[in-house]
Amino acid sequence: MTPFRQFLAMSFLKWALIMILMLWSFFVFIYISKLNVENVLDSDYKMTRLNQAKTSAEQSEKRNAELEALIDEYLSDKSIRPEQKWKLIDVIESKLVPYAALRNKIIEPSVEYEKLRRRVQSNTQEMWNYVNSEMIELKKIGNPGSANFSVQIDAIINAAAEQKNSLLHDLDQLAEVDGYEAWRLKEAAELSDLMQRRLHHLQNPEDCGKAQKLMCPLEVVIPEDLAPRLTRLHGDPFAWWVGQFLKYLLRMQPQTHNMVDGHRQKLGFTKPIVGVHVRRTDKLTQVKSHNVEEYMIWVEDYFNRLELSQPVVKRRVFLATDDPKVIEDARKKYPKYDIIGDPDVARTAAISTRYSNSSLNGIISDAHLLSMCDYVVCTFSSQICRMAYEFMQTMYPDASNRFKSVDTIYFFYGEKVHSREAVISHRAKNTIELSMNVSDTLRIFHNLGNGFSQGKSLQTNQTGIFPSFKVVNKVETADFPKYMNIN
């Protein structure tokens, strides 16, 4: 191309660009002029629309905050089962796309963190058991030189109890604010759903006539493939395992559900509430009897701790028993408590009517209502107490610390060995104590409630007592069928 043609081409492009810029400027001028005219003519209308938009945005933000608060309140309600809570999230996900990110925000805790959190909680209670027991023994010995000795001991016990409750309350709060509660709810719901589907598959074979049936001695074991998840989530995995069988076996039909709900409404069963189960009649010939005061000590202890986080207008107790006199006695001795219980149900539990339909309905109702309580005090020597404990594990991610047995540790009737593993070595200080090394396995008989447990070393075959805080629950596993087609 010649320089002249290059000049003409450049000139043409230059003028074309100038024309485009002029046209763009013209249209911008016209548009701005139009806006200015509209602003002059309709400024009040524009301002009104702007204020309406602002108000609408503020209301939308407020509604979103209220919705978020309602969801958080629902998820933190410990009376609602985990699977019900997660079903709400499923519904929200299906209707509101932004909430699908809720699952992605879930943070999982480490196994070490969850185990350590529960161990600190357990050891705090064991430390209190030891201090309280020693102070009571010291009070019995007395000091002839001081008339106020007994008063001083009581003051120490009360101060120590207050500090213990503060520590346990702080640990409860830690679990709520550590950012892992959503994971606990989700994990509990998914494990329970998996277990229920496995049981359904097992109990509904394609051909019942060809289905294998197995009977064997009961071992305290959980499925090997679920153990890593369960030991992270739960403080008593075997109780959770048994609780899942109860959940499957005791699926209430509408008639039974209405019966239990009617009983609940009749009693005025509202939260917060502590359940107490007192076994009398034939149990008196089998195990040591415990008076009402031994149960109420722990009821009072729970409410004292609860009041650190919320006001309690009325201390309410659901008292289940097979002796109607127990209900009457408790109401007389503790008039400041709202003690609810059904003497008619208690009468049907008498030996003469124990195997009637009305007695069976009473047992079902008592067990369910006990498991619905916030905390339960009972005796693990009673099958009703153990059943309520097992069933309660299906209602919370981990309800292993929501029970207090005033006589023995949890066990499943017919089990062979209940084991503990030593995590701190111990040298016997007297003839009744038991020496143990780290990793030793011990068969535990009783938690004595004074900071010590009684058991037998499987390494030395010696029997004796040892500090409870130096051992942990030993979880045994077995290779159960995996049912990969339903996982």
Low-confidence stretches: 2-41
Mean pLDDT: 84
H-E string: HHHHHHEHHHEHEHEHHEHEEEEEEE
Gross morphology is globular
What class do helices, strands and sheet pairing give? alpha/beta
> Ends: how far apart?
76 Å
Q: What can be said about the biggest beta sheet?
A: 5 strands, parallel
- Tell me the strand order in the biggest sheet: 4-3-2-5-6
Write a structural description.
The protein starts with a helix and ends in a 9-residue tail after the last strand. The model is unreliable at about 1-40 (pLDDT under 50). Helix 5 (about 150-175) packs across helix 10 (about 290-305) and helix 13 (about 355-370) crosses helix 14 (about 385-390). The chain has a 5-stranded parallel beta sheet, with helices on both faces. The protein has a 5-stranded antiparallel beta sheet with strand order 10-9-8-7-11. A two-stranded parallel sheet has the order 1-12. It contains 14 helices and 12 strands. With about 475 residues, it is α/β, with parallel strands linked by helices. Helix 14 (about 385-390) links the parallel strand 5 (about 375-380) and strand 6.
